[in-house]
Specification:
The protein is of the alpha/beta class. The protein has one domain: TIM Barrel. It has 10 helices and 7 strands. Strands 1, 2, 3, 4, 5, 6 and 7 form a 7-stranded parallel beta sheet that branches. Helix 1 packs parallel to helix 3 and helix 3 runs parallel beside helix 4. It is globular and about 50 Å long. The chain starts with 5 loop residues before the first helix and ends with a helix.
Amino acid sequence: MRDFTCTTYRRLIGSLRKAGYVFLTMEQYCEQKQSLPTRCVILRHDVDLRAPYSERIARVEHDQQAVASYYFRVIPQSNQPEVIRSIASMGHEIGYHYEDLSIADGDTKQAITHFQNWLAYFRQFYEVRTICMHGAPTSRYDGRDLWKQYNYRDYGIIGEPYFDVDFSDIFYLTDTGRCWDGYKVSVRDKIPVHQDEWIRRGWIYHTTDQLITAIEQGSLAPHLMITTHPQRWTDDLLPWLQELIVQKLKNIIKRILIVLRHG
């Protein structure tokens, strides 16, 4: 069975539900993190490209009574109002996938103005209370550096995953690199402080089938954040093959960038 399809994602959500995981949005996590359920999972989606694919994933979740957080970029491939409205109507959270510092070429004053304007824009669709940095691996700017000079809480934001998730308690999984152990090729979407401990515990998964098996066996961590990029989850063969090939090339480029940045 092909990995990274809507069919496979449906199996993943079903296995989590059957195992007793409670689904939380990032917003709900921030409100409840002092008293989390015994088993819970934050479903986070970074809508980088192909916004309609996110709507399909949102429907899969909705059909299984799961909620998730969807973070949209400002670019047209992500920022599609009809898709945003549809996903919000299913009860999912909408957030801003910010990259303002890169867009402003490092100018923090321009970046914070850009952030304010686009935050107001996305609040047309949902009362946005959480944001998430877009990794932008080819940019020399880390979007999170904007908060060295400003405070996102001044804008009514209660959470940003890279700052406000307790990763000593939450095990982080991401499909970055089109696999579940993509921290090896990720430029920014990784949690280096805790990754060594997760590896020591044997929490290493490459395929979604391996992840589902761990859920069914009860060996997966009780508190999770699972991040996906819906653009790569499709049952349609040609787009699936295209994403497979493009991602393999991107992984090679990312490895080169990592080597160059670390000398």
